[in-house]
Amino acid sequence: MELKEKLLSSFMAFEERVDVQSQLHDVRTSAIKNFENKGFPTKKEEAWKYTSLNAILKNDFTVFPKKDSAIEFNQVKKYFLHEIDTYKVVFIDGIFSSHLSSTTHDGIDVCLMSSALTKPKYKMVIDNYFNKIASKDDSLTSLNTAFANEGAYINIPKSKVADKPIEIMYFSTGNESALMVQPRNLVIVGENSHVQIIERHQSLSENPVLTNSVTEIFAQKRAIVDYYKIQNDGLEANLIDNTYVSQQKESHVYVHTFSFGGNLTRNNLNFYHYGERLTSTLNGITIIGENQHVDHYTLVNHAQPNCESFQDYKGIFSDRSTGVFNGKVYVEKEAQKTNAFQKSNNILLSDKATINAKPQLEIFADDVKCSHGCTVGQLDETALFYMQQRGIPKKEAKALLMYAFSNAVIENIKIPELKQRITKIIAMKLGVKLGFDL
Amino acid sequence: MLSIKNLHASIGDKEILKGIDLEVKAGEIHAIMGPNGAGKSTLSAIIAGNENYEVTQGEILLENEDISELAPEERAHKGVFLSFQYPVEIPGVSVTNFMKTAINETRKANHLEEMPANEMLKVIREKSELLEIDRKFLSRSLNEGFSGGEKKRNEIFQMAMLEPKLAILDETDSGLDIDALRIVANGVNKLKSDKNAIIVITHYQRLLDYIIPDFVHVLYNGKIVKSGGAELAHELEEKGYDWIKGEN
Fold it and tell me: Residue ranges of the SUF system FeS cluster assembly SufBD core domain (chain A) (predicted)?
């Protein structure tokens, strides 16, 4: 059976299981209808011109895994930021692991989407926020909405600073020969509040995985949200990340995306502005090789005056890997005094590697500063010669140059231990041990 | 120390060096002067191993060993240093970290242990004082946003750190004001010993007032057309390069 048919026929059973009477029944029903009409996106659609899901969809994915997968912390410790204390919301094959998690309701809520969706005390929040910023038009987002049940629920009330970073971790065990999961996260950060979140999807086997994830982030007035996505998964793992950010005035939301692994990764990252003088920052480092594919599809919708957005994406592509950067900045007529900057710099290390870079600026206001710049190049030969002349072998010199190239983005990581971790992963990706800790 | 015999080199189809012979002994300072486009920078790049140029004839011997087939880093490990006319900016890598990497890679290639961190700091402090370099400067990204003078001082600082046998200073005086020139020249003179050799490549005689050469060579159209003592530099300054061009 084709995956689409399988998903459609699973839907009824799923709804019965989660409670047909639920308030979400209508939301889910219209979502599955949208998916049924549109199906999986194909390369015929402009937004998916450079990314094909065809080969992946041929896998016979299990949609509802068995419940008995257990993992010991020691097996997966290395994937956590274990050097420091963090809140953890951990899922194994899509199912919450209380064993590996460390949740809280003490002043802030760091817990489960499934309880938020079903418990009466969360009803008002869910009514106000769930599926409110996520697209009702996008077929993959709709598919996730239809099956939305599990994921992280984070609610930081007014004037609170989350006392430690929150790690959202999705493991897949490989107990199923092929697994599809649809995590759904909801993050609400109150007025003047501040939170740091790290999200990671990690496959523990070589069996194919398809993750279709949706995250909604709401930043209230003057809230600061610092969100890190670590994509360093195995070569059989595929991720479609749909993230929607809603910002109120004077808030600042950073999303940093580190794409190092996986077979296919698509990041749909959307920012919507609902207040003045706010800032959106989108940073990314992509370092891939072999036949890996990473597609960054970003949208910043400037709808209010005096807002700023910064996009800085660095990509290093070797072997036959392919990258896509499609960055859309939309400046509405009311959004005067907008500052919108977008950069995508790419290095191709092989003749067979490809990058498709496509900036799109649509500006309807007349008093704005907008810029975009895409570069594609090779490593600077003069710089390589300079370093070799000082005794640094070519391989290390290349690595140092690539590190220097991605440095502007690394510098933006505000959790020191995470910064160290990312630089280590980068050094590993570049295959070098340098004379100092990056 | 360095012995260049009948060196021919080209970039693409264009022959730039047309038979260079040069003998540099330990303890000597040689100046290579010449008009723009004579091949001065090409010669220094070729000695350092820049792969953009092809050596078509002749040989380059360093302490009797032919180095013309070696990679740039291998030549560096054997003690060749080139101070660049245009030092390259490397954002995100501090001067200190860059030097640590360069020194330890060189030591590794010469089968030595890594330099202990405290010793490294000590040497860095010593050498930075020699070049009158502020401590804060060392934690900045290599050459990024440095003034022309800072870049050149940083080049000589690296030379001091690496203690090369053969140092080639390519247009080190360009972009230097008189104070920076004095500091750089002073640094070079202090690094000079009877165990190493220095080749100063320059367009003007100015730097040679501070770093006094034992020999001056005039390079024109890919060949050394005149050699002499320090007085040759003064003669050139007086008569201009047209004098050489007229004779050749």
Answer: 175-405
Could you tell me the residue ranges of all domains in chain A? 3-395+405-422
In contact, A314 and A287? CB cutoff 8 Å = no
- When pLDDT is cut at 50, 70 and 90, the band that residue A251 belongs to is very high
Cα nearest neighbour of B51 on chain A: A385
Distance CA A386, CA A390 (A): 7
Separation between Cα atoms, residue A165 and residue A160, nearest integer Å: 13
* Residue of B84, B88, B105 with shortest CB distance to A392: B105
Nearest CA in chain B to A385: B50
pLDDT at residue B248, as a whole number: 66
Paired tokens of A273: 């502005």
**Mutual angle of helices A3-18 and A139-147, in 10-degree steps:** 30
* H-only helix segments in A327-393: 381-389
Q: Alpha helices, DSSP H only, in chain B?
A: 40-48, 72-77, 95-109, 117-130, 148-162, 178-191, 231-239, 242-247
Q: State how far the Cα of A339 lies from the Cα of A352, in Å rounded to an integer.
A: 36
pLDDT above 70 coverage of chain B, percent: 100
| A122: DSSP letter | G
| Cβ contacts of A388 on chain B, cutoff 8 Å | 49, 71-73, 76
pLDDT bin (cut points 50, 70, 90) of residue A35 is very high
Closest residue on chain B to A436 (Cα): B97
Cα–Cα nearest to A196, from A166, A159, A216 = A166
Cα–Cα distance measured from residue A204 to residue A176, given in angstroms and rounded to the nearest whole number: 12
d(CA A208, CA A264): 11
Report how far apart, in Å, the C-alpha atoms of B239 and of each of A282, B119, B171, B242 are: 61, 50, 21, 7
For chain B, what are the domain ranges? 2-247
Token representation of residue B102: 């360069």
Nearest CA to A319 out of A356, A287, A284 is that of A287
Across the interface, of B91, B103, B104, the residue whose CB is closest to A407 is B91
Q: Percent of chain A scored above 70 by pLDDT?
A: 97
A402 phi/psi in degrees, rounded to 5: -70, -35
A391/B90 CB distance under 8 A: no
Contact between residue B182 and residue B13 where contact means Cβ atoms under 8 Å apart = no
Torsions phi, psi for A46 (to 5 deg)? -55, -40
3-state secondary structure of B89: coil
How far is it, in rounded angstroms, from Cα B87 to Cα A162? 46
Q: Is 90 exceeded by the pLDDT of residue A331?
A: yes
Q: Tell me, rounded to whole angstroms, the distance of Cα A98 from its chain centroid.
A: 23
Tell me the nearest-neighbour CA distance from B90 into chain A, angstroms. 6
Give the span between the Cα atoms of A117 and B131, in whole angstroms.
67
Q: CB count, 10 Å around CB of B159?
A: 25
Show Cβ contacts of residue B159 under 8 Å, excluding neighbours closer than 6 positions. Answer: B81, B83, B167, B188, B191
Give the whole-angstrom CA distance, residue B16 versus residue A227.
Answer: 55
State both tokens at A50. 């450079």
CA pair distance B29, B31, nearest whole angstrom: 7
Topology of the domain covering B2-247: Rossmann fold (3.40.50)
Instruction: Give yes or no for residue A18 having a pLDDT over 90.
Output: no
DSSP B36: T
Q: In the prediction, which pLDDT does A301 show?
A: 98
Instruction: Residue B151: count other Cβ atoms within 10 Å of its Cβ.
Output: 21
B166 touching A, CB under 8 A? no
Three-state SS for A92? strand
Measured CA to CA, the distance from residue B236 to residue B246 in angstroms comes to 13
